[in-house]
Design goal:
85 residues; mainly alpha; 92% helix
C-alpha cells in the first residue's frame, strides 16, 4: 500500500471519527497486508520446492491477474469518494 493510499485512508476515517481511529485502521490494514505477504511467500516457496519454480511463478501470476478486477473496483470507489467531497 503506497503512502498516498494510506494517507487517504487515514483522512477518510478521521473525517468520520477521531484521529486515533484513523491510526488504528491504518495499523489493521498494514497487519493484513503483511500477513498476506507472509502467507503468499510461504505458500509459493513451498510450491516451488514441492513442484517446480515455474509452477510457483504461474500460480503467482494467475493470482495477481485474477485480483486485478478487485484493484480496479477499489480505485473506482476511491475516486467516487474523493469526488464527493
Amino acid at each position: 500500500m503506497n503512502p498516498v493510499k494510506i494517507l487517504s485512508l487515514v483522512f477518510s476515517v478521521a473525517l468520520c471519527g477521531s484521529a486515533s481511529s484513523g491510526a488504528s485502521v491504518n495499523s489493521v490494514v498494514r497487519l493484513f497486508l503483511d500477513m498476506g505477504g507472509v502467507a503468499g511467500q510461504t505458500g509459493l516457496g513451498y510450491l516451488s520446492r514441492a513442484v517446480s519454480i515455474p509452477a510457483a511463478w504461474v500460480l503467482g501470476g494467475a493470482v495477481l491477474f485474477l485480483g486485478y478486477p478487485l484493484y480496479r473496483r477499489v480505485e473506482r470507489e476511491e475516486n467516487l469518494v474523493i469526488s464527493d467531497r
